[in-house]
Amino acid sequence: MSSPPDATEFFSMTYGEITVSGWVTPDVLRGVEAGEVIRFTVHEAMSEDIALGDLICNFAGGTLAPFRLPEGT
Q: pTM for the whole thing?
């Protein structure tokens, strides 16, 4: 699966001992960095040598949210 053309920003997150990286849009990156409550897709996500495909994430306050946000958030 390939990233949409507007997913131009590299994104990496670590949760515990697992790091996942991939590509997001500039708007998503700004939202995460601003601490917004946001649901988004990390395109072409990877963890070490494992391809995860497109990974849906929920963030709040700049960190992974421990709850599922509704679509469109």
A: 0.83
